[in-house]
Amino acid sequence: MLSFLEDLAGAVYDVIRMLIMMVTTMFGGAMLVFIPVVLFVYSLSFF
Question: Which residue ranges traverse the bilayer (predicted)?
Fold first, then answer.
């Protein structure tokens, strides 16, 4: 019974870790796209 709970906890942990990796990857990609756009708009409004 205890080993079943440990396996379940391990599976849940793996899923959560995978979700966190996906979110951070998406966020990182969004930041890579977001920063140049902000700089471009800022330079347009500056001139």
Answer: 20-42
